[in-house]
Protein: ISAs1 family transposase
Amino acid sequence: MGEALKVIMEFFTLHDHRGLHPPMASSLISALTVTTPGPDTPTRPVTDSERRGLLDAVSLVPDPRNPRGIRYPLAALLTVAVCAVLAGASSFTAITDWLYDLDEPAQARLGFTRGIPAGTTVWRLLTRLDDALVSAVLAGWLRARAQPAPERPHRYRTVIAVDGKTLRGARLAEGRQVHLLSALDTSTGIVLAQVTVDTKSNEIPAFTPLLNAVEKILGDLAGVLFVADALHTQTDHARQITARGAHLLLQAKGNQPTLFAQLKAVPWAQIPVGDRTRDRGHGRKETRTVKAVTVHIPGGIAFPHAQQAVRITRTRTVDGKTSRETAYLITSLPAAHAQPADLQKWARAEWLIENQVHNVRDVTFREDQHQARTGTGPAIMATLRNTAIGWHRINGATNIARANRRADRRSNDLIQAVTSIYPNTQ
Structure:
């Protein structure tokens, strides 16, 4: 897959990122001070030749079938699968039904000029595809279609949230469930990469192939910030991320007992509050307080490349009952480039992949009820759902279920939008 993926990535736009290397603070424990980073390098505009139509983009996916006797092009089958899921289809059967409901001119525009396939044909082919390769192609297509923000915030930084999800309905013969690890670009809502976790392992070994896939999509990880839950607070992960010029913001828990104890022992009472936010709604009040320091002790913080210790305290009041939660984190960004308000925002970005992707796949697309488990079928369907969510997000949708219904009602507009080189909405 490596060579095919390398060729495919040449067709998609690569974004530039910057690496920042400010000096270390000199005190034992110094509170963060406000500094102004250098300006960002503008993103290179995407040209019409790079903004490919979907049929053209998915033609790069290798066809696993014998070339003799092929009646239905793989690009057409993949394109209709994407369109159907964009219109709310939640299974292989629903994809075929959506295709059958189109009129003949619409079917022809999708590449079906010699009739349309049976549902079993669609299912058999899609479950044989390389799921990581399909994910890379569709993520690259979405990124090329996304319109860059006209003006980036002054302290802009690309933040990638990493999280795993179990497909509860996709139970394999031995009783194990399919588990996927994904990386979300929190600024665009596009899932950049997704890998299947080995059924006899966990997410930790899957992190390296995921990181490799993200790097191939972006072209360069310099300056990118990765946020993840405590499971990925692993020394090898930290070394891999920083070796590529990227940064990390990770939570410390019991899986790193020395680090956790060290962070708890910081004299937080002596450190001023760096940032505080208050939210209320749905009968709940929440206050989030951030303290962050640069810690200088012999040997430094007990984690590779850790520059700062962070404490976030969340106080919630619901129906008159108050609860308090404290989280300890480390980041490889020094104080000059990660102020408490930044850390507050970036820490919350970790939840975006759960709220804006995984929860939508469950609630809107009923993913956990989908029992397909043959071949790469579960991962392919998850990739199609990621693509649908990403497409609707870059077109400004906030309610994905409503966007699906709109696409289904206006199928001709949908087909025109995805097959055109122009990034227009339906």
User: Anything to note?
Assistant: The CA atoms of residues 96 and 391 lie 21 Å apart. The first helix runs from residue 2 to 9. The first strand starts at residue 29 and ends at 31. The chain has one domain: 2-34+44-419.
